[in-house]
Amino acid sequence: MKARNYLRLEYVGHRFRNDKETCHVLHDVNLTIGKGEIVSLVGHSGCGKSTLLHLIAGLEQPTQGVLLCAGKEITCPGRDRAIVFQNHNLLPWLSCFQNVYLAVERAFSRRRPAAQLKAMARHALSKVGLQEALDKYPGELSAGMRQRVGIARALAIEPSVLLMDEPFNALDTATRAQLQDELMALASSTDTTIVLATHDVDEAVILSDRIVLLSDGPASTIHDIVTVPLPRPRRRLDLLDDARYGSCRSAVLGFLHRKPEGAGPRTIAEGVRPRMGSDPGSKSATLTP
Q: How far lies 126's CA from each of 10, 59, 156, 232, 278, in Å?
C-alpha cells in the first residue's frame, strides 16, 4: 500500500531579507503528498513555487513550520530528492555523459561498480533522446538539449522525490510531449513522487494527480487543490474529448484569470462541484462534471 503522506508540509512559511526589507514569500502552507503521486504547483509569477521546491529539496530552510519526507525532517539536501532547475546548471567543461556520470558517481560510488554507474548515466541520457550526444559539451548543444541533460542527471540518481521547476519550457512541442510521457511512466513504474512547478495548464492537467493552486504573494498560501480524476495510463489524444479533462482545465484557468484577491468571490468552473478536503489550511476540489 502506498504511503499517503510520504511528503508532508506543516504550516510552512518562509521569509527572506534583502537590502531594504523582509519579504514574506510563503505562509501556513499545509500539504501532504503520497508516494508515487504527481503534484503540480500552479500560480502567478512570484507566488513562491520555486521557493517551495527549494524547501522540499533542502536547499533552503523554512522560517516557520516543518517539512517531512518519509517521516524524517528535511534539514538539508539528500540523495532521496533531486531537483531539475529552470536553467540546466551544467558544468561547461564536462561532456553530457560526464555531467550525468558525476552525479551518479557521487550518489552511488560506494555501493555500485564503475561499469554499472556508466551504464546508468548512458541509460538516463538515452531516456531523454541524447544517446548520440554523449561526448558533446554544453556549448555545442541547443538550449533544449542542455535542459534534457539536466533532466537526465536528475533521473540518473533514482530519487524517491523528483522536483521539477518548469523543466520543459525550453523544449520543442514533440520533445516536451515525449518527456511528459516518460515522466508519467517513471512515476507509475518506480513509485517516484514528483512535484512540478509549471505555468502550462495543459501540462498540469495531463501529468498530475492533483494541482495545487497557490495564491498571489506576498505571503502566498494554498488557495485550492484540484484533484484530477483521470485514470492512468493517460493518452493525450484520448483526453481531448474527455469532459473531466475540460473541467479540470477550466478550474485552473478560472483560478489564474480570477479577480484579484479581495475583489469578491470567484467561480472555479461552470458545472463543477467542489468537495472540501482534510488538508489543514487548504481546500481540495474533486471535479465532477
A: 38, 29, 11, 24, 41
